[in-house]
Amino acid sequence: MTDSNLRLDALVIAAHPDDAEISLGGTILRLTAAGLKVGVLDLTAGEMGSRGTGEDRAAEAAEASELLGLSLRINLGLPDGRVVAGVEEREKVAALLRAHRPDIVFAHSESDLHPDHVAAGRIAREAWYVCGLRRLAQQAGEEPSPRPRHLLRFMGHLAFEPTLVVDIGPVWERKMAAISAYSSQLTSDSDDGSHFLFGADIAERVETKARYFGELIGARHGEPLMHDGPVPLGQELCPAWGALLSWADVGDSPD
Ligand SMILES: [Zn+2]
After folding, report:
1. Confidence class for position 192, pLDDT limits 50, 70, 90
2. What is the CATH number of the domain that holds 58?
3. In a 3-state reduction of DSSP, which class is residue 173?
4. How far apart are CA 235 and CA 78, in angstroms?
5. How confident is the model over 114-161, as pLDDT tens digits?
6. What percent of the chain has pLDDT over 70?
7. pLDDT of 179 above 90
């Protein structure tokens, strides 16, 4: 699923296939349901995952991408378990930001237990900055692009105080269907407790988190996000941010 110049409204930068679905699947679905173009960039193929193989995850990611309505899914092929936030890595990601020009970048929180998540969050932040540096872009033979207007963090292992919580109640079942596409990750027989969501019953743990954060905003299910830096007000809204802000009034009402 590639298109080298497709203009995106939002790009999710994740360390492993299934991170985007687990942490952000509902938000992605709300954006794609609004007709917006969303892409996911997986930095690794997840080949070192304790469950299933890299090939399993590639097939599963393709199925999940369909369910999420993604316009683009790219795998950068960095080594799973050894992601480093170096110059080469950030310049590869910066090149993709210049090519696809998303208004919003979703990235891992840099406070996380998994070193790949920490590195992926840092790569996203640094790529966000350097994609707008004219000389660097010209050196790479690329057109400089404006920096994405919003950098939003999604939650991994460690909790943070969210800047906003997205009501994902209306798309909850569809989020769980997308996660279920990763069947190799969901089996409990090979569980050694090392997965991103500790323990065997990933679906239950995803729901526990979603119910907790949903409760904070009076919704059945929610996904927490943290805005990097102050939220700008008084500026023209990009379509994706406008869709995020309008979600409070959309969908199922809480019980
Ligand atoms: Zn991960």
Report:
1. low
2. 3.40.50.10320
3. helix
4. 37
5. 999 999 999 999 999 999 999 999 998 988 889 999 999 999 989 999
6. 87
7. yes
Domain membership of residue 149 (yes or no) is yes
Ligand 1 centre from 19 Cα, in Å? Answer: 5
Query: What was the pLDDT predicted at 195?
Result: 55
* Count of domains observed in the chain: 1
Q: How confident is the model at residue 252 (pLDDT cuts 50, 70, 90)?
A: very low
The boundaries of the domain holding residue 18 are 10-230
**How remote is the CA of residue 124 from the centroid of ligand 1, in Å?**
15
CA 214 to ligand 1 center in whole angstroms: 22
Residue 54, in any domain of the structure: yes
- 45 to 75, 133, 248: CA distances (angstroms): 7, 29, 35
Q: Is 253 among the domain residues?
A: no
Selection from 138, 153, 32, 45 nearest residue 94 by Cα: 138
Give distance in angstroms: CA of 42 to centre of ligand 1: 10
Residues in a beta bridge with 72: 39
Residue 177 within any structural domain of the chain: yes
Mean pLDDT of 63-88: 96
CA of residue 143 to ligand 1 center, whole Å: 31
